[in-house]
Design goal:
This protein is about 40% helix and about 10% strand. The chain is mainly alpha-helical. A 3-stranded mixed β-sheet has the order 2-1-3. The N and C termini lie far apart (about 50 Å).
Length: about 120
């Protein structure tokens, strides 16, 4: 029998919890490598973006296979940061990451929509 049982509820219900999760996911997307990011994506244009292998490997079998090559086995102190170069522009890569992390991306033009669709293929 457990010593203590906690039932934590967000103050404004489940929707505020979901909002918090989406906010934190969006905040994890930046151009500055952080202590928790282990992936740098270098688009054809613009600045590199940081991400997380665990997130992208769940949506891309190709990336999952690539990341397995850099997985630590045995006594590994830290996971290696992987750099991936993509033949996509910065805005397209950023929008792809927004869709993966938050489930949405606001696109103002049909060109942006087409670029996102092409990048996801």
């Amino acid at each position: 029998m457990p010593q203590i049982s906690l039932n934590l509820k967000p103050p404004n219900g489940i929707s505020s919890h979901q909002d918090l999760i989406l906010y934190q996911a969006a905040q994890s997307l930046s151009t500055q490598p952080g202590k928790n990011s282990d992936l740098i994506i270098v688009p054809r244009t613009g600045t590199p973006l940081v991400s997380h292998q665990a997130v992208l490997s769940t949506v891309s079998p190709l990336l999952a296979t690539l990341f397995k090559q850099f997985t630590c086995t045995g006594d590994c102190i830290s996971k290696r940061t992987v750099t991936v170069h993509l033949d996509l522009d910065h805005v397209t890569v950023e929008n792809i990451l927004k869709v993966v992390y938050t489930g949405k991306a606001v696109l103002d033009t049909t060109v942006g929509v087409d670029c996102l669709k092409a990048g996801l293929d």
